[in-house]
Every structure is written in structure tokens, then in C-alpha cells.
Fold:
Amino acid sequence: MTRVSAYAAPEPGGILAPFDYDLGPLAPDEVDIAVAHCGICHSDLSMIDNNWRSSRYPLVPGHEVIGRIARAGSGVRHLAEGDLVGLGWHAGYCLTCAECLGGHHHTCAQAQPTIRGRHGGFADLVRAQAASVLRLPDGLDPASAGPLLCGGITVFHPIDAHVRPTDRVAVVGIGGLGHLALQFLRAWGCEVTAFTTTPQKADEARRLGAHDVLDTRDPKALNAARGRFNMILSTVNVPLDWNRYASALAPRGRLHLAGVVMDPLSVAPGHLQGNERSIGASPVGAPATMARMLDFAARHRIRPVTEHFPLAEVNTALDHLRAGKARYRVVLDL
Structure:
């Protein structure tokens, strides 16, 4: 048996406490990762609090894992002991359904989230199917790379799927997701606009890649942007006046939701039909897209802006994130 030392929530909304458990035998297609760094995502908070009614306790959060392969199963060929790797939201796939065979592993009906029904990366060791684990390319800083594996891929996937380098793209929300979207889009070649309700973030948004910053509290500013954008990428988790944003789209433009908004959307069809505009959303991405994102980030020196806490201070780090004080991603170091 392999003993794991972790921090777990014992109940919904509970304070995380030390929790040790044993891993069973290593399957031929699995690897064990010795964790060095693990990002904290809002999804971890949602799972701790059981907001999605799918959590099981004790719950070990953590799905932005950076570490080294400690053991590899007998059937694993692309990873070896000592490799520097990352693990994101999914820790396994069926690998045989139409979605997996088509390269869309992230929409596999049997995809296994890293922190749902299994223990995640707030631990010294985490286990996953090797197909979900990615080797980190040279040039990425391991200490800050973890948030790319969830926050990064959440915004990179729609860019990779829907955005051309000549597009005009706006990012709504300059936070944990948005600050990465600005960097990716600028390196992609786009004309980038940051939508924010916090004017103090304007200079930082420009440093991160925005060519222009628009204060969305000013109705005149948003009205002046009517018909301008090929994509508006929303990274917020609160409802907005979506009709105003849809009106800012160019013909055949796309309003894409990367942030999780729990309220129903209300958009008048007239804002979409006349100019063939559309609304879409997406979760994370498939392993191939994640690998492409990591290579792109290494090539263009894109890195999350991170704050760091030791694993033993995990509850302080969680409170920091809950209070909205994170700038912009929080990482636990072992």
C-alpha cells in the first residue's frame, strides 16, 4: 500500500484538516504524481461547499497539479519516473467512446474529474490515468504553471476553436481567468479589449495584453462598441445584461461563456438573428488541446500571476480566495 498525506474537507463547507489514506494497487494505465505545487480554483471552493450537489466527503480538493512521476503503471509508455508533469480537471477518460476517439475527451460521458469520487492534489501524492497527465515543456515555470491546467485551458480552448488572429476580441472580467485570456489573445495576434468594472485595473489589463480597456459601468462606452467584436469571452460567474453584450458583437460574432453563470441567460433573439450572432460555452479541453496550450504558453512566455501559500496554510489560502483578494491565482507549495 502507498500512504498519502493530504488535507480534506470532512463535510460541506468544512475546514480542511490533515487526512491520510492508502492508495490501492497501481493499475497498468495509471501514474502516481509526487505533488510539488497545486493551484486553488473556484471549482475547488464549489466542491468543498457542495454547490454542485456532487461532492463526496472526506473531500481532498486540488486539480491544478504540478509534480513529478513517482510511479508509472506497467502499460504506460509516454511517461516515466521523474518526468515533470501536470494534471488538470480530469484524471481519466473511457478512451473508447465517440468523443474520446474524436479527440474530445473533455466531453466524454465517463470522464472522471480529479476531485469528484477520488482524491485530488492537496496532498503529497495524487493518482491519475496516464492519458490525462501531460509532460511540461521546457520554458514553463513549474511553480506558477498549475493554474494553466484549469483556468488556462478554460479560456484557451474557445480561443483555439473559434478565434482567428485577425479577430477583435473582448474579455469580460480581469481576474483568475481573464488575466490569462488577455495574454493568450495578445500572443494569438488579436486586437484585444478588456471589459472591466474596476478602472484601477486598466493599466494592469494593458500590461497583460489589452490594446483597449472599456468600463462596462458606462452605458455610453458599451453602446459605442456596438457591432465591434468577433468574440466576447466572458470569464465572470455573475449574470450580466447579456443583450448589451450581444449588441457589441460583429456579424457572425460569438458571445462565449467560460465562467460558470448559474442563472439562466436572457437574450432577445433579435440581437442574434439579424446578424447571425451566436452564444456558446465550454468547459475545459482535451489533452491534445492542453498540450498545445502548454507549448503556446512556453513559446510566448505566458504565465499566470500567482500568490503562494504552503500546503499547511491551506485554510488561510482558501479564505484569501473566498474574500476575492487573490491576484490572480493562488498556488499551494509542498
User: Anything to note?
Assistant: The first strand starts at residue 2 and ends at 8. The chain has a mean pLDDT of 96.
